[in-house]
Structure formats: C-alpha cells, structure tokens
Prior knowledge:
This protein is an all-alpha fold.
Amino acid sequence: xxxxxxxxxxxxxxxxxxxxxxxxxxxxxxxxxxxxxxxxxxxxxxxxxxxxxxxxxxxxxxxxxxxxxxxxxxxxxxxxxxxxxxxxxxxxxxxxxxxxxxxxxxxxxxxxxxxxxxxxxxxxxxxxxxxxxxxxxxxxxxxxxxxxxxxxxxxxxxxxxxxxxxxxxxxxxxxxxxxxxxxxxxxxxxxxxxxxxxxxxxxxxxxxxxxxxxxxxxxxxxxxxxxxxxxxxxxxxxxxxxxxxxxxxxxxxxxxxxxxxxxxxxxxxxxxxxxxxxxxxxxxxxxxxxxxxxxxxxxxxxxxxxxxxxxxxxxxxxxxxxxxxxxxxxxxxxxxxxxxxxxxxxxxx
Length: 349
C-alpha cells in the first residue's frame, strides 16, 4: 500500500566501512534519512460497501455494479457510479454515489480521484467517519500529509478515545522527524490500546532515531511479544528489533530475531538483507551470501544487498564479483533516485 520507502539507517552505518574497501566512489554516495514505510498498516481499513440499496439504482444497474465488483473490474464500477452522480450533481443521492465511488477509487489505487470524489461529496453533506479516515489515508498516499493531518485532527477531536486516529497522527509526526511529539502521542496510544503492535513498533523506531537503542529494543520487544499472538504475525517488528540489536552489537540475538521474521515473511527481502548483515558482522561471510542473494531475487531493484555483497566478496578475495556487485549497487541507486512528486491541487476544507 503505501508505497515502500527506504530503510537506510543501516546503509549509512555500513557505508563508512565500505568506503575503505571500495574507495572514494562510495564516499560520494548520499543516503537519505529512513522514512517510515506504511508497511504494516493497510490504509484501506474496510472493504468496499456491498449494500447499494440506498443508491437508488435500477435493478439492472445495481446488478451490473455488483458483477463488476465481483470480477474486480473497478474501472467499470467507477464509471457506473460517476455517470450516475453526474446526472443530479447536488443531491443527497449524488453524495452517496460519490462516497461509494471514492471507496472503489481508493481500492483501485486511484487516490487522487478518490480524494476528489470525497471532497465533492463533502460539499453536499458531511462525510461519515469511515470516509473521512480513508480520505486522510488517500492524502498520505498523495504525499499531502498536511491535509491528512487536518482530517485526522477532526476525527481525533470528535473521538479523543480512538487510538487509531491518535496513532496515525503520531505516524505523521514520525514522518516529519518530530520524534518528541510522536513519542508523546504513541505513549497516549498505548494507554488507550495496550495491545497495539504497531504503536510499540513505531515507538521503537522513534527511540532508534534518537540513538536510544535500549529504549528502542524494549518497545520492539513488546511489539514482538504481541505480534506473536496475532492471527497473521508481521515480520516487521522482528526486523526492526534486529536492527537495533545490531546497533548494540547483540548479533546472535539479532540473527535469531531475523530468522523468526523470515518465518513470518518468507518473501520479505529486507529480512534476508538484514540477516546477511548480521552474519557479515559476525565474520560469517560465506553464510551471509545466500540470504543476500535471496533478497536480490525477491526484489531485483533493491540496492543495499548488492552493496553488502560487494564488501563480502572483497573480503573473500573475489575482486571480479566484488566490482560487479559494486557496479550493480550504483546502477540501482541511480535508478531509484526520488523524482519530484506531483502536487495535485485539491483544496482542503
């Protein structure tokens, strides 16, 4: 969902070591701060509505809409709803049609269209809680976190006991590198919901960025405990815990955490990359190569495993492979350079 973002704290750390082995070319590399990927949170918390009785559609049109959704033909469903909404632009029925269309646009990854539909509906009648929250998630996807904050603040003001809204406000603080505010909000979230895995995990990330690794490990540890109790445990708390454990040089514990992460997420390239790091830091160079190769196989665009493979091959005396990995790393980093993002004009209300 939310778009994947770099996890470059460990890359910046290893870059200093790589420079001595590979020369000035690595010294010239710049690694942006890690931002918090919305990797554990599904920004579409609820599915598309299936009760269309209040949309006043003909039986034939309602059946066509239901069939389109059953086939995941979102474009057809969107077209039906937008066409109907345009027939009476200012009616209450139109607002309902637009809200339904917005949910399908969101599910379809059409976040700009979703936001426009919700704002058009809001111009007719106030948005319901669910729609306003998902509108905030759409703004996050559109990289308009200021607009998302405005919507979340409205929701939090109406329901100060709702841990979900407080959590997402904390996530926005984290993204803005306002860690003190994020920590305060997350501590409040935990008071409201002591079992929220992602609250402890994000709190760990905040402490990690402040260099308070023991506090980070403490909160990651709680996230890991709670995560194990989930129906589908996420690998991410274990990966995050391992990164801080490596910072504390607790390498066997980090390795153990990463192997557990791989059990939960066997297709997560970051888990294999971090396992490669943990093994490399223990001097187990040959053992580190397979998980790093697995990371590159799972995500051919992932630069950092090539970076570490280059270092390992250099240590193993294979300069040809070392250079090949170094070259591949540079190619991928160049290809992944962030391009200017569109700035859609959606006037917030």
